[in-house]
Amino acid sequence: MSKNKKLSLSGGDTTEKFIYKPKDLIWAKMKGFTPWPGMIVEPPLDLLTQQRRANTKCVFFFGSRNFAWIEENNIKPFEGPWKEELAKVSKPAAFRHAMNDIDKYFEDPTEVDEQINESCGGANHATEADFDKIRDGLDSDENATELLDTSAGDGNNGVVPHVVGSPHESDALDANNADSSVSPNAGAASSTTTPASAKPQVKRTPKAKSSAAVSVTKSSGKAAGTKSAQKRRISSHQAVSGSAGSSAKRGKRAASGDAAAPGLHLDGASSSSPTGKRRIETDLLASLSKRAPNAIALLDRPVVTRPETQAIDMNSRSNTLADREIVPSDQTFGFLGLGMMGSTIVKDLIYTGHKVVVWNRTIDKCQPFVEAGADVKDTPMDVVEAADVIFCCVSDPKGAKDLVFGNCGVLQLKDLRNKAYVEMSTIDPETSLDIGEGIKQCNGRYLEAQIHGSRQEAADGMLIILAGGDRSVFEECHSCFKTIAKNTFFLGNIGNACKVNLILQTILGVSLVGLAEALALADRFSISLNDIIDIFDLTSMKSPLLLAKGKEMAKGDFNPQQPLSHMQRDLRLVLNMAENLDQSMPVTSITNEVFKHTKRLGYSEHDSSAVFVRSRF
């Protein structure tokens, strides 16, 4: 461990502050308890869900072999001038057992390391089949959770600290620590129930409710009268306040980590009986701890099977596209970006006889198009030199700007006279204005052509084109737009097409989340999702898109037609656009959070219908 000298520890003394790392042996001091030998470790999954203060470390305690969050100012290295004083054998038997345990660790650390690795290992990544099991487990444990809250409510203000340890460790409480809710001497999940008659022979500080109760008794013994009644009311109020204040303090200690000691004994003392202690049952706590890793894996699951990348089929032809009479333009069209949408568009342009020059960051994706007759260039600037009209279709606004303003980008060719640039990426109006201004400064012409539709609609030539900017470029691209779209709209100035496209995406995103939540509710009722979709098809609410997405949700088939990450990107752009206008969009904001959470679950590259996974749980 490294040292930063002349830094202040707790108590205001100028001394050394140690920076602790995993596997460092230490002394850990909890409030009200004797310093205890321990080790800095990575926190177990159960402990990650516990509230804690800043500047805390996860400590593994020897002897009781459990874990807790401890503030750094209550930690000291195991070796030091203080070791002799802290390791005195005139301590409880549990402390001596802890010292023997750490001595064994020095001789052979294998056993302890295995236990720590088992408790603090990697997350348990749930599979798709585990979702129903986890959900059913949560439902079946509702009664157990209510019992747990009732047991710990009086003593801990409803806060139950998560502690991981050996359920077989059941050392007695130290006399000096008997009044605390947690002690390093006790086992992590002890279930020993203390009889009411077996009172520990220790000194206790009278609680506020005890003195108040005495006042109530004295007041009730006086003659009945107005003053006596008032005293009784005041005393009763003090008793309730004292009890609530004591419970709140204990709950605050449990939430902050001070009470999350190596062993767990929660006092659920009744306000009417000072000896009415209740302890949490071992099997109840074990069941909650046992399902916690799965619950965490459900909400924090970075490992999800990625959808297979579908190779472009250059030989397939859409019947709709084959029926159209398209006369290709004599101009050369450049295309930057061969992603899911771009590759489909380029394939259709080549099929209808257009001369195409392509570029892509991953050069391997260009090979099928070379075989189909397209030319490939090394940089975007090379494509601009070879083409008359340049299309760009990339994943986000940053990528779009990089292709224009970046190294070897479009504007590296200083004179764009007789060149036209068409931005087909989904971008915000500000980005479109910036790109348009840059193109115009180099004597070029600019058109934003936002594409609305899915990958399948692109393959069928059924997209909708929303254009804005230079009208002459719009006319020159007529044969291309007729190839890939069923309708085209020219909306005027630069930025208008971006705004309309993002507004349409807002409607789509909100509708998908509504559909997903409705089907998730039907699933909880065990109603057939296919029946819901069939009935929905007969109503006036039906739409081809929602029907298709609903069938994908019912089958669990999230093969990407429009990636979920793209939908979340569009919602983010919408919210940024609304923020500039101080326009409130609470439903869109919540929808965006749902998509963000679904991305966090690992479904970023799946279809946007995968939001159903998030809605189910």
From TrEMBL:
Cellular compartment(s): Chromosome
Compositionally skewed regions (Low complexity) per UniProt: 183-200, 208-224
An MF annotation (GO) of this entry: NADP binding
PWWP domain mapped to chain residues: 22-81
SUPFAM superfamilies on file: 6-phosphogluconate dehydrogenase C-terminal domain-like, NAD(P)-binding Rossmann-fold domains, Tudor/PWWP/MBT
Key word Methyltransferase present: no
Chief location bin: nucleus
SMART domains recorded: PWWP
GO biological process: one example: transcription elongation-coupled chromatin remodeling
Swiss-Prot/TrEMBL keywords: Chromosome
Known partners and oligomeric status: Binds to mononucleosomes. Interacts with male-specific lethal (MSL) histone acetyltransferase complex at least composed of mof, msl-1, msl-2 and msl-3.
Family: Belongs to the HIBADH-related family. NP60 subfamily.
Protein name: Cytokine-like nuclear factor N-PAC
Species for this entry: Drosophila willistoni
